[in-house]
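Hi, here's the filled form for the chain we discussed.

Project: internal
Contact: R.S.
Residues: 370
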Amino acid sequence: MTVRRQGRSKILLADDDQLTRSTLAKILEVFGHKAVVVGDGQSALETVDDSFDLIILDINMPRMDGYETISALNDLHLDIPVLFLTGGGSMQQVMKAMNLGAYDFLTKPIEDLDVFNIKIRRAIEKRMYILQERDYRESLEDDIRLKARQLEEKNTLLLAYSDSLENATVQIMTSLQNAMERKDYYTAGHTLRVTEYAMMTGRAMGLPQEDMLALRRAAQFHDIGKLVIDLSCIRKDGSLTEEEWRLVREHPTVGAAIIEPLSFMMREQFIIRHHHERMDGQGYPDGLKGDDLDILTRILIVTDSFDAMTSQRNYRRNMNVDEAVEELFLCADSQFDRDVVEVFAKSIVDFTLKTSVFSGFGQALEPTLP
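And the returned structure, exactly as it came back:
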């Protein structure tokens, strides 16, 4: 776990000019910070550790300039904000530094102490936010590991005491559902809606009771892998980067791994792992297609996609029911099973005629599951 520091903020200052170092260190001390000064980038790398809240780098330094230094700092993954110190850099320098991850710029000599203080404090606040997020992720990962061990222990008991299977299953499902709601409110609402849609479709297709049970569990657990996805990816305003998409695309595999200790949920594990596959084989993680996907997986692919299209997200406008249904038909045979789309489309249209819950998409449906 990250140890959160108390008292003065600790700032690493790297500048080859002794007078500049001395002056800035005194200013930082006046504003209540602790300054650690070095004369070049190499010394900064040898000095830095996770205890620092901010790094101030001069651009032009011997041995390693500011650009080389921040590149090396990025490889350390300390997530400490970096302010570049320049005597009047060009726009080209600004863009190069920003592309390397610089938080902001300071110009020397320091003429406006109020602006200087504001930039320093904003960067330190950014560091505190990073540490809080790190604490949360580490705590959540510990919780997941603990729950995984608990699930494995429960599985051993289930094998020995089959008569308590249903009760133990309900307890496990409740535990994982609570963990998911702690992760992200949107995920909790999405899970309820997708489960409702899946049950509605399964009933319309006349699925037997055992299939309905497996479908319900798979729908409730299908996004459980997002428990280990960084919150900044899930809640981010705007489009995700390629790396963020790579992380998000891991959630079906992670979810299946979480379910794996439960040997009585083998069907659900398959569905969870493949709920982002496509009928044409262009999905992930395994590129399955056509008959490789059973009917329960095909239902979840359709209902999950429908809710994603009709749910409000920060980075795009949500579709209404008609638009989303039209999109399902446009992608039938390539992404979706056409038979499932036809059954779901009729069911969802009938449902909207009977209820008013779709007046605002993105809101969690009240559970009406059997």
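Let me know if anything looks off before we file it.
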